[in-house]
Inverse folding.
């Protein structure tokens, strides 16, 4: 990997983010949710992060704002990885969609939406993907009970 | 409660389109349980005659709440769960997960464990590729080639069962090591199987590589360009089939890959034929790596000597109080993982297999997220299906090698 990338990114993003740090070989960039598209464009166009590997969220019920939304970018040119994190509140869990920049964002945003209720502004296709139509709640939130069942087809009685 | 009539059952999905976009086209539903798709997947397709105009891929029929379940078990207890993600190469999942936890704990595994994990990961990759190619060929009617490849796969399954006690889901990885060392004679049998495999894959090459029917079905079908593959997050053999030599084993070496001599096979144009050929060549490369690893395998301890994760020897548990307490704490509370977060990616048989772990300290994870190649690939599958014939859906889908266990989690 080109080690200078991790030095140049913080310089370029100065003002957009608090001090980035390298943790376990990944540059961690914490940003304001409103700056997401801007930062993603810089990463993609100027630093060669051409693949969105992963997108998920983390729920911190005791914290305000409650959710972390976490993107992992990878470069197929210099093999660096960047983790972009932002915080959103339960009252307005909205971030911009990255489907305009990365095709792979489509399925990942659908999954993150159904599991955590994060809304991706500009993504018109947030249908359920692993769950089914009509599923209530967001199961990966910490306040969703693990044992709650919502069978789409009612259970059948089994005669003893 | 009695079951409602079949036509009153709710539809679990909402298709992206329900109206024809042009005169005379029809919308058909393929799956989720269809004999020609291995894997429970539903494809809603708009057809003009036999031609696929657009598709809407639905997954999730194998969703079982893997990530939710992980949040209420100890770090060690998750190993059987990660086994069930990609169940064609479960050992790769084990090692990717264990390495992510080891990174959080700051553990460096022993040399013997490092080489042995590399060897077993490559052995699993062979089994996975054999399964993929065998199933894809069978769906095209090549029953002989299927049997040749599955014969070898079964030798491998039985051989891994000698080591781990299970044929498919091994639970063999341990945080900081492996469950146990190789049984006597295991490496000798390994060499025999690899030699046998060369014979059988050679026969498959002879049967299909220049077979007119096979070429007509595979060449120029499901074509993907490198730029498109990267944009849609494709990794592994699918990305390499487009001509890009991108392989995490070479690009960001982990385990013992930096010390091995191997090539990254690539395709020419990213069609079904290239995906078949890249996988066949990767089998050869994996066998080449395993033969090197057998010679390099050092003696020495298998598990790290770290009381935070490694279980004490059984005789000690029964004879001294410290080991008894250690064992008890590891079982009841789990390995104590310091707070932090990590993303660790291995080159799985189908592509980048990543684990994103968040720990708040203690024996139970706060969050476990699996970046599953199959799930990401399903997001871009329509790029390979649209514009081709309905009959091409089957080989194209087979060449992606979607594994429901990791796609739906």
């Amino acid at each position: 990997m080109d080690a200078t990338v991790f030095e140049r990114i913080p310089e370029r993003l100065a003002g957009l983010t608090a001090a980035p740090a390298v943790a376990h070989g990944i540059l961690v960039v914490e940003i304001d949710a409103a700056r997401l598209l801007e930062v993603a464009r810089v990463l993609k166009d100027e630093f060669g992060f051409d693949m969105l590997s992963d997108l998920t969220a983390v729920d911190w019920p005791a914290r305000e704002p409650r959710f972390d939304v976490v993107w992992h970018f990878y470069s197929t040119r210099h093999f660096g990885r960047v983790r972009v994190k932002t915080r959103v509140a339960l009252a307005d869990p909205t971030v911009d969609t990255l489907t305009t920049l990365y095709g792979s964002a489509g399925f990942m945003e659908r999954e993150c939406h159904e599991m955590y209720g994060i809304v991706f502004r500009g993504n018109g296709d947030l249908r359920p993907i692993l769950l089914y139509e009509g599923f209530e709640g967001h199961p990966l939130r910490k306040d969703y009970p693990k044992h709650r069942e919502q069978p789409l087809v009612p259970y059948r009685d089994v005669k003893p | 409660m009695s079951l409602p009539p079949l036509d009153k059952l709710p539809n679990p999905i909402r298709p992206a389109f329900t109206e024809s976009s042009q005169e005379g086209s029809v919308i058909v539903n393929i799956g989720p349980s269809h004999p020609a798709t291995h894997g429970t997947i539903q494809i809603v397709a708009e057809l003009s005659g036999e031609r696929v105009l657009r598709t809407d891929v639905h997954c999730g029929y194998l969703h079982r709440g893997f990530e939710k379940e992980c949040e209420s078990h100890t770090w060690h207890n998750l190993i059987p769960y990660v086994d069930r993600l990609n169940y064609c190469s479960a050992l790769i999942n084990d090692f990717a997960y264990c390495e992510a936890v080891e990174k959080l704990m700051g553990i460096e595994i022993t040399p013997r464990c490092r080489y042995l994990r590399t060897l077993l990961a490559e052995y699993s990759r062979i089994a996975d590729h054999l399964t993929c190619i065998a199933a894809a060929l069978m769906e095209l009617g090549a029953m002989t080639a299927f049997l040749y490849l599955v014969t070898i796969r079964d030798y491998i399954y039985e051989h891994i069962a000698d080591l781990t006690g299970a044929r498919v889901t091994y639970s063999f990885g341990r945080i900081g090591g492996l469950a146990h060392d190789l049984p006597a004679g295991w490496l000798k049998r390994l060499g025999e199987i690899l030699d046998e495999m060369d014979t059988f894959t050679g026969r498959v090459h002879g049967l299909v590589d220049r077979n007119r029917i096979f070429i007509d079905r595979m060449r120029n079908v499901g074509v993907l360009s490198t730029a498109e593959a990267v944009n849609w997050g494709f990794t592994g053999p699918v990305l390499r089939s487009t001509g890009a030599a991108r392989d995490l084993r070479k690009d960001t070496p982990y385990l013992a890959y930096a010390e091995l001599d191997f090539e990254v096979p690539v395709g020419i144009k990213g069609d079904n034929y290239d995906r078949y050929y890249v996988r066949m060549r990767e089998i050869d490369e994996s066998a080449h790596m395993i033969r090197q690893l057998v010679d390099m395998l050092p003696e020495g301890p298998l598990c790290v000597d770290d009381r935070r994760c490694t279980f004490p020897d059984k005789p000690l548990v029964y004879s001294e109080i410290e080991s008894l307490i250690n064992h008890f704490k590891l079982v009841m509370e789990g390995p104590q993982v310091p707070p932090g977060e990590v993303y660790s990616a291995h080159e799985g048989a189908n592509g980048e297999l990543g684990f994103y772990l968040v720990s708040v300290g203690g024996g139970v994870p706060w969050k476990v997220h699996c970046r599953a190649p199959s799930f990401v690939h399903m997001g871009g599958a329509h790029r390979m299906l649209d514009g081709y014939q309905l009959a091409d859906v089957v080989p194209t889908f087979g060449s992606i090698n979607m594994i429901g266990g990791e796609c739906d989690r």
